[in-house]
Design brief:
single chain; about 425 residues; alpha+beta; Deoxyribonuclease I, Chain A; Vitelline Membrane Outer Layer Protein I, subunit A; six-stranded mixed β-sheet; 25 strands
Length: about 425
């Protein structure tokens, strides 16, 4: 983001926070303090540090951050969580040789948590199932941020470099599919450097429209590939390059602004002045604000299928001419018809299709979603849509668990978000300003 625009947006967010006097205003803007930290939690003797002692020392220091990613959280995970009070935390995937070492500690609820193992590894990295994790963080009602934690292959031998490039490529493809149309935050021990010509961190950034908070706030531009590495001294400064990266992008429904980046903040040292890990923690502060033209609702259903979002692509300036729903016993598919005639469809082809064509100045004003269990999976059983003229359409079999999403005054429903496979597994809506 251009510096002057960042300043304007940051000022607007800060002013809104200072002046807000209602709960509604408070949910429109916010500040997110985050930290990513490789805590060197391999068993004593294998770890480069002393995690049996240091884990208990570093755990309380995480409290000031609203969202924390840790890597190498292996054999001292119980100690880490015993010293931490974040209300939302991922369950461990196991110690070294069994787990990926990735965990998240959060002040915000999250959903759809998924662990993905790398398809390729090399050397000692193959001794434990390393990979990446995905979750959808809920900052406020309908304010959703896709968050990734990752730990690609380490090392600089030819096999290491090849595996790491494959890891970064795998993560990139996943983001392109699962986070299309969404704001994204990636905090990871990437094991990559901009100065290392054989690393493909630039491809991850370019392919997904990401910004590196360190490059943006500290360097101004990424170091040249092939240049001498920007190694850190002791203590380090923000100007050196570490492999721990913090990448982000915003979306039409959620503006993100990086306000602050800090390497080695928060006093993560023992009483003798030694670091608590062989990595320094990286922290940042982001200001966020909901979109002024497009917004999304919460989603209801189960964590199955693949995520979709009608805001993917270029959502600006388009209107709907109709909506098509498919279903029988449950909701099989949803689709909006753009005024260009293009259909944005999701889900399967089962059930009976029902189309509601919208008249002049007619818009969708509310949606009622019912969810239930089918084959031990939570899915969307029915969807009812109502327009501002009182017309409606319904598909599926309504259940007892129902949620009604009503467009705010001056807004209307302009699309769908959710998850789908052969049926609709989870559903929310896109709101557009009138």
């Amino acid at each position: 983001m251009l510096p002057h625009l960042r300043t304007l947006v940051s000022f607007g967010i800060a002013l809104s926070l200072a002046c807000a006097s209602t709960a509604q205003a408070q949910t429109d803007v916010g500040v997110l303090d985050v930290l990513t930290y490789n805590i060197a939690g391999l068993p004593e003797g294998l770890s480069s540090g002393t995690p049996a002692t240091n884990t208990a020392l570093l755990a309380p220091k995480l409290a000031t951050y609203g969202l924390v990613h840790v890597q190498e959280d292996f054999n001292y995970h119980a100690t880490l969580y015993a010293g931490d009070a974040h209300p939302y935390r991922t369950a461990t995937s196991g110690g070294a040789a069994f787990g990926d070492g990735l965990n998240t500690l959060s002040n915000y609820p999250f959903s759809d948590f998924t662990r993905v193992k790398w398809n390729q590894c090399n050397g000692t990295d193959c001794l434990t199932p390393k990979g990446f994790s995905y979750m959808r963080l809920r900052l406020a009602d309908g304010v959703l941020l896709d968050v990734y934690n990752a730990h690609p292959n380490a090392g600089v031998e030819a096999g290491d470099l090849s595996a790491r490039r494959a890891n970064i490529g795998q993560l990139s493809q996943f983001i392109q599919t699962w986070s299309a149309g969404n704001a994204v935050l990636v905090m990871m021990d990437s094991n990559t450097r901009y100065t290392r010509s054989d690393d493909n961190i630039r491809e991850l950034i370019a392919s997904n429209g990401l910004t590196d908070a360190w490059v943006e706030l500290i360097k101004g531009s990424a170091p040249a590939a092939g240049a001498a590495p920007l190694l850190c001294g002791t203590p380090p400064t923000n100007s050196c390059e570490v492999v721990d990266k913090m990448l982000y992008r915003d979306a039409p429904q959620l503006t993100l602004v990086a306000n602050r980046y800090q390497l080695d903040g928060g006093g993560f040292y023992d009483s003798a002045g030694k670091p608590l890990s062989d990595h320094y923690p990286v922290s940042a502060q982001f200001g966020w604000a909901v979109g002024d033209q497009l917004r999304t609702s919460d989603q209801f259903g189960g964590p199955h299928g693949i995520p979709f979002n009608d805001l993917a692509g270029n959502p600006g300036g388009r209107s709907l001419s109709g909506v098509t729903l498919r279903g029988g016993a449950r909701l099989d598919g949803v689709g909006v018809i753009l005024d260009s005639g293009k259909l944005l469809a999701h889900g399967g082809s089962g059930g009976q299709a029902t189309t509601l064509s919208l008249g002049a100045n007619e818009t969708l004003s509310s949606a009622t979603v019912s969810v239930g269990k089918y084959n031990d999976r939570t899915r969307v059983f029915s969807l009812s849509l109502r327009t501002n003229t009182g017309r409606s359409v319904q598909v599926g079999t309504p259940g007892s668990e129902r949620y009604t999403l009503t467009a705010p005054s001056g807004w209307h429903i302009a699309g769908f978000t959710g998850r789908a496979g052969d049926e609709i597994d989870k559903l929310g809506v896109v709101y557009a300003k009138d």
